[in-house]
Every structure is written in C-alpha cells, then in structure tokens.
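ok so I'm stuck.
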Amino acid sequence: MDSNVDYQAVRRACCELMGRGERASRPNVQDLLATKEYLGHKGSNAVVQGYINDFWVEVGQRLNEPPRTVAGVPDAFVSIIDKALVDMVSAARNIAESELAGRKAEMAVQAQKMEKAIQEARDSALAADQLRLRAEGELNAVQTRINELRGNLASAEQRLADESRRNEAQARTIEEKDAEIRRHFDAIEAANRALEQANQQHREESHRLLKQVDDERQSGRKEAQRLNNLLEKARSETTEARNESTRQREENARIQSENAALGANKSSLEASVADLNGRLANAEQTLRRAQEESTVLRVRYETAEQLRQEASGQCNTQAEELGELRRTVEQLESNLAVARAAQHRAEGDLKSPG
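replied:
not stuck anymore, here's the structure
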C-alpha cells in the first residue's frame, strides 16, 4: 500500500461524498483526495479502491446491526438522537477537518518557511563553510605570515644583538678614543707648558745673553777706547821717543862729531844718552804692555763674539725646537680633529636606526 494514503482519509472522503448526495466511487474519492484539504494527491488506484471496499464493508456491518436501545428513552427518539449524534460528530469532524486543514495550511506555510529557513541555513552554512575555508586559507596565510614574522623577528633580534654588540664595541672605541683624546689633551697641555717654560727660559736666557753681550760690548768698547787711548798715547810717546832718539842720535852724531871739540861735555852727553835710552826702554815697555793689553782686549772681544755666536746658535736651536714643538702641537690638533670627527660619526651611527 501507498504510505501517503490512509484509510481514515478515504473514509472521510467517502462520508463527505455521501453527505453531498454523490456516489463514493474511486474517481470521485481520488479527486477529493487530490484537494488541499486532504492529501493533495490522488494516490494509488488499487490502494484507494481497497480502502473504499473496506468503507463499504464497515457501512454494511453498521447497517446490519440491530437498532440500539437506550434505557429510559423511547425507541423513536433513539434513532433521532443517533442521527443527531452522527450529525454532531460529522459537524465536529468537519470542523476538526477544517481546523486540521487550516493547521495543515499553517504548517505548510511554516514548513515552507522552515524549508526557506533551512535553505537559508544551508546557504548560510555553505557561506559559512566558504567563509571557514577562506578563513582557513587566511589563517594558513596568517600562520605563514606569523612564521615569516617570527623568522623576521628572530633575524631582527639577531641583528639587534649584533647592533648592540657593535654599539658596545663602538662605545668602548669611543671611550678609548676619549681616553686617547684626554691623553692627547694632557700631552698638548704638557707640551704647551713645556713650550711656555722653554719660551720663558729662552726669553730669559736670550735676555741674559743679550744683556751680557751688550755689557761685554760696552766694556769692550770702553776698554778698547781706553786701550786705543793708551795705544795712541804710547804711539805718541814712542813717536816722541823715536823723534827724541833721532834727535839724540843726530845730536849724538853731532856730539860725536864735536867730541873732539866737546870732550869736556862727553860725560854729560853720555848721561843724557843713557837717560834717553832709559826713556826709550820705558816707552818700548809701555808699548809692549799696551800691545799685551790690546791682545787681551782682542781675546776678550773674540770671546764675547764667540759667546754672542753661541747665544745666537742657542737662539736658533731653541727657535728650531720651538718650531718642532709647534709642528707637534699642530699634528696633535689635527689628530684631535680626526678623533673628534670619528667620535661624531660614531655618535651619528649610534643615533641612526638599527
């Protein structure tokens, strides 16, 4: 039998046809079953016909039953009451069937709504599945990106560690450069102090030597002037002595020529000659002493000149040492500028992003 067609539906259709005065045949019953109030389809011919046969068997059995009697109720009223009950049952059944049809319609609408909701749910599930697949793809991409970011993070941490080590090395280098710069500054200050001391000593020594040279020159000039005066005096005395000697010689010659005539004056003339010889010896001794003093003055002058040359040599040597110290200071200043530039570059590298 068809599971969609039941006996109660066929029986109700037969009762409705008979209530309308129509014959409960299979086509009429199937037409009524095909309506929305019933099943909505005709069903199988054999099944519907079998249920119709069962209905007629039930009707025959009921017709063959003896009349029902009710105690205390006349028999004429029993059939009327039964008919009324049948009508009431039929009306109640019709009402129930109409309500059932309404409920079925509502349920059909609800079923359509539910089917629509199910379809929407299926669509939502499909969309959710697609979203899930897309989310899984995006999740895989995100996980891949996370792995890449983890790798980048590890690389960045490694670079950061390397940069930190480089920064520490640069900091140590900067500290060493600072210490070296401080040493250079100390050396420059010491060199400046030594240079100032050397300059001061050089100025004092130069002043002393120049003063000594000036004093020697002044004393040499004075002594030379005195010796020149003495020499001139000695020369004049020598000239006078020579002139006197010449005159005395001439006089001696004249006296010798006149010796014969002036024999009486011989002793006095010899005394005069001896006196003149003594004066000549004194003049020659004075000349030798003046020459010795002139030699001493010349030696002292040469010594003073040698001292002046030595002082000039010391001044030149100190000037060369001063120039060497200045070149050393300039070299230290250039090294300091290079170290400061390196320090600025290192500080710039430290401030730049790593």
